[in-house]
Structure formats: structure tokens, C-alpha cells
Amino acid sequence: MENLLFLLRDGIDQREVIKTYESVIKTMKEQIYSLKSKLAVSEDSIRRYKQIEVAETQKELKESKLALNSAIQELTAKNNYISQLEQKSKIIEEALAKNESEIFSLTEEKEYWKSLASQSPELEITNKSVLPNDLMEKFRENEKSRIRAQEEADFYKSKYEEIIENMHNVKDKLEETDTLKLQQATLKGEFGDIEQQLLKKEEQVKSSNKRFIFIQKKMDKLSKDKKLYEEKTQELENERKKLSEKYQNLASRVKGEERLKGRIKELEENLEAASQEIENLLERLRDSLKRTEELQNIINCETKAHDQTKEAYKRIKIQEKLLIDERDLLANMNSELSIKLNIMQEEMEKTKSPESIEKHEITFKKGTKESAALMRLNHKLEENVSRLENELSFTKEKLQKKEQEVLELELKLNESHRERRKLEQRQRDVPRDSIAGLIKCLDKETDHPISALSCDNNNLLLHEMNEKYDRLLDKYQAAEEAKTSLESQLNNYQHMLKSMKTQINEDAFKNSNFEKILAERNEEITTLKEKISMLEDKVKYFGISAETERHREISHKPVISRAGSLQNLTERRTKARSNTPDDAATPRYYPMRSNSLLKLRVPSQTYDKPSWRG
Q1: Among the listed residues 445, 476, 457, 49, the one whose alpha carbon sits nearest the alpha carbon of residue 239
Q2: Which residues contact 20 (CB under 8 A, 6 or more apart)?
Q3: What would the DSSP string read from start to end of 59-104?
Q4: Is 167 exposed, middle or buried (0-12, 13-18, 19+ CB in 10 A)?
Q5: What is the pLDDT of residues 33-80, one digit of tens each?
Q6: d(Cα 279, Cα 272) in Å, to the nearest integer?
Q7: Buried b / exposed e across 321-345, counting CB within 10 Å, b at 16+?
Q8: What's the per-residue H, E or C state across 104-159?
Q9: What is the pLDDT of residue 434?
């Protein structure tokens, strides 16, 4: 910029200098535009990244919640089924123990009867006639016992077959436990899938942290670029100040006559404006005087009304005092008359002659009439007193309102007086100052040393320089506005980064909670495994013996399995689930007990019982 000033001093064309300055400003604008584009791209990338992360986290949370709910439902169903199996296994164990005891007793009886049967053929070979009677009776008894033993053997054989059928049912239940094991294996696979999802989630969090670090690096670079551009703008501002100082020096040397003409026009316009202001001030003074006169008339009227109300108030007070005195006199008279009436009644009781009675009646009637008239007068006086009191209260309220209005009018008068004084001071001071200032400015401009210059070429060049300087100022202001907008955008980005950090911390906390829940579910699954292994050991311990298997091979009776295949089991369970509503979807409504009405009784209702009445 200093080189440009030297060129101006040497007389080189000023247009080339201005073109170079414009090229520098264009480069600055291009750099600012590139910065804006970079910031817009970074904003779009951050917004997209936030949207994608929010959508992914929501999907993963929904999937994990659904998986957990399904696993919990299956675990509850399996727990119920295992408890049922345990109950059934206990019943089967008791039946097996009974059957074994019965089989042992049957084998002993069988051996006993076999020994008897081995003895009976010899008895049949011998001649019945040769045998004695004792032996014949024993033989008959043995035959009866043999027939009875055969019948009991048939009975126990049927029981034995029933026990075998029960054992087949137990085998079917063992097959069902195998299906449960398969389902447990599927649950293990699902648990592995959930663990894989957790690992994916951790990887995503790590990748998001990497992206956040990358964005922070970008923001650091942008802040450095911002500092560089601020330094450049400061340099440009310093150069602009130097140019403006040089330009002002040149303009002060070259202006001359145009400045004088413009100054004279400005002075004439100022004189016209001052005259108009003086006229306006005079009109305002007239208006204020009229307002003050009107306000004074209103205040006089109000003061007169106030005095009249005061006089009326005094009159009403005097009337009130007179009425109170009259009321007291009438009360005294009434008391005296009542005393006289009492005396007359006593005299009437003493003197019961007809003449005296008539006299007393006449006097009593006169006294009652006088007392009634006095009571009426007293009532009227009381009504008048109450009416006067109401009028007094009403007049007091009117007086208070009028006093407030008078105060407001006095304040308005004071304000009008102040405005009038201010206007008078301005009327006195303004014309003198304005005229004196105009005369001084004219004297200074006439005494200027370069007032006689008349260089048309220089004036044209200076006019062009003025226009270009104004353009440069506009461009510089636009650049400053762009700089402020960039600073605001950077602040917004920093705020967005802070919000992203908080969201990442919240996601990490949620992941830790999810890991705790999964650990609890793993513990539940291990407990279920232990229970299933215990059941398997019990089934092995109470398994089918070799004798039952041999009898099964000999009988060759087809036994229908009640459990069926795995497909039938799954179909039955799906039907049962479809018929029953979900606990989470449909709310459970429990009926209110009759005893709850007693608890909701109001205390007033409980006191209405006969027990509280005594």
C-alpha cells in the first residue's frame, strides 16, 4: 500500500492503482466464499452424521428391547413348565415306589405258590380213595388257594401293565424335555446374537469417537484459518486507514470552490430550518398558553365546587348535631312517660273504684297516644339521621375524587409551565447560536488559502476517487459482515460439538445399563440350566428297569405316544399363545372388592350409624 501511495505522489495513473486494490479485494472475497462453502459442507456432514447415528441407535434399542421381552416371556413359560414337570416327577416317584413294593410282595407270593404247585401234582397222581380225609381237605384247600392266587396274579398283572403304560408316559415326557433342551439351545443362539449386536454397538461408538476426533481436528484447522483471516483483515484495515488519511489530505488540498458552494447551500438550508423551527416553537407556545388558560379556568371552577361542597358538609354536620340532640330529648321524654305509665298502673291497682278506673283509663289512653306519637317521631328522626349519614359518606367520596382531579390538574399546569419556559429559552438561544455559527463558518471558508483554485481536471479525478472510495468502503463493510457471520457459525459449531459430546456420554451410559441387564439374564439362564440338569438326573435315577423292557418286548402291544412330535408341540403352544392376550399389550382389570366400599366412607357417613348415637 505504501508503494501505491508513492505511485500516487509520482503522478502515475490513479485508475491502475484502484484496479490493483480491487483485485486484492476480489481475492479476499473469493477466500471468504471458499470459507463459507467449507463451513456449509461441514454443517451438512455433521447434520447427516447426527441423523444416521440417531436412527441407528433407535433401531438397535428397539431390537434389543424386543429381544429382551421375548426372552423374558420364554423364560417365564419355561419356568412354569419346569415347575409342572417337577410336580409330575414327584407323583411318578411315589407311584414307582408303591409299584416296586407291590411287585416285591407279588414275587414272594408267586414263589410260595410255585412251591405249592410243585407239591400238588404228586397229590393228584395218588388215588383219592387211598388218601385220608385230612389230606383230601388239605388238597381242596390248596386248590382253592391256587385258584385265588391265579386270580390275584391276573389282577396284579393288569396293574403291572398299567404301570408300564405310566412308564411310557414318563418316556414321552422325557422326549418333551428333549424339545425343551432344543429350545434352550436356540435361546443360547439368540443370546449369542445379542452379544454380537452389543459388540457392533461398541464398534459403532468407537467409530463415532473417531469421527468426533476428526471433526475436532477440522474445527481446529478452521479456527486457525479464521485467525489468519482476522490478521489479514486487520492488515487491510490498517492499509485502509492509511489510504483514507492520504485521500483526506489530497481532498482537503483540492476541494475549494465546490466545498464553499455546498457549505453556502447548507447554511441557507439551515437558516430556513431554523426559521421553521422558530415558527413551530411559537405555535407551540401559543398552544401551551391556551391550554394553561383552559386549565386555570377548570381549576377555578373546581375550587368553587370544592368550597360549595365544604359549606354543604358543614351544614349537614350542624343538622346532624341538632337531630342527635332532638333524639336524646325524645328518648328522655319517652323514659319519663314510661315511668309515669308505671306509676299510673300502680295507682290503678290500688284504687279499683269505677270512677277512678275511668279517669285512669282516660289518662292511660292519653299517655299511650303521646308515647306512640313520640315513637313515630323518634323513628322518623332515626331515618333522617341514617339518610344524612349516607349523604355525608357520598359527599366525602365526591370530595376525595375532586381533590385527586385537582392534584392532576395542578401537575398538568406545572408541566405546561415547564414546557413554556423551555420553549422561551429555546426561542431566545437558538437564533443567536445558529446565526453566529453560520457567520463563523463563512469567515473560515473565505479565509481558506486554496479558495481561488479552479482546476477542472483535478476536480474530476477527485470526484472519481470519491466514488471509488465509497465503493471500497461498501465492500469492506460487506467483508466485515461476512466475518461476523463466520464467527457466529463457528460458535454454533462449537455448541453443536458440545451437544454431540453429551449425547455420546448418554449413549455410553445406556450401553452400560444394557450390559448389566444382559448379565442378569445370563445368571437366570445359568440357574435354568442347573434346574434342567437336576431334572435330567432325577429322570435317569427313576428310569425304567430291565424287567419292564423285557415285558414290553414280550407283550408287543402298540403304545400310542401322547406327546407327539416337536411340530405338534410347537403348534399347540402357538395356539395357546394366540388365544391368550399379551400382558404388555392388554391391561389387566381387577374387580373391586366389596370391603373397599367401607374404606371409602366419609366420616359423616360413619357417624350416622346407630352405634355412634348411643
Answers
A1: 476
A2: 4
A3: HHHHHHHHHHHHHHHHHHHHHHHHHHHHHHHHHHHHHHHHHHHHHH
A4: buried
A5: 777 777 777 778 777 877 787 777 677 777 766 766 776 777 677 667
A6: 11
A7: eeeeeebeeeeeebeeeeeebeeee
A8: HHHHHHHHHHHHHHHHHHHHHHCCCCCCCHHHHHHHHHHHHHHHHHHHHHHHHHHH
A9: 44
Which of 51-55, 136-140, 283-287, 437-441 holds the top average pLDDT? Answer: 51-55
Cα 207 from chain centroid?
Answer: 32
Give pLDDT, residue 138. 63
Percent of the chain with pLDDT over 90: 0
pLDDT digits (tens, 9 = 90+) for 482-520: 656 656 665 665 566 566 556 656 665 765 665 676 667
Per DSSP, the residues of 420-474 read HHHHHHHHHHHHHHHHHHHHHHHHHHHT-TTTT---HHHHHHHHHHHHHHHHHHH
* Residue 449, pLDDT score: 41
Q: CA–CA separation, 339 vs 159, rounded Å?
A: 126
Angle, to 10 degrees, between the axis of helix 354-446 and the axis of helix 257-350? 170
**Would the pLDDT of 238 be above 80?**
yes
Asked whether 148 and 84 are in contact (CB, 8 A), the reply is no
Distance CA 182, CA 536 (A): 14
Distance CA 528, CA 536 (A): 12
Q: What does the alpha-carbon distance between residue 159 and residue 151 come to, in Å, rounded to a whole number?
A: 13
Tally of CB atoms within 10 A around 479: 18
Distance CA 132, CA 268 (A): 178
Structural domains of the chain in order of their starting residue, each with its CATH number: 2-256+477-554 (no CATH), 257-446 (1.10.287.950)
CB neighbours (10 Å) of residue 138?
A: 13
> What is the Cα 37 distance to its own chain's centre?
38
* Rounded percentage of the chain residues whose pLDDT exceeds 70: 35
| pTM of the predicted protein model | 0.21
Nine-digit cell string for 5: 501511495
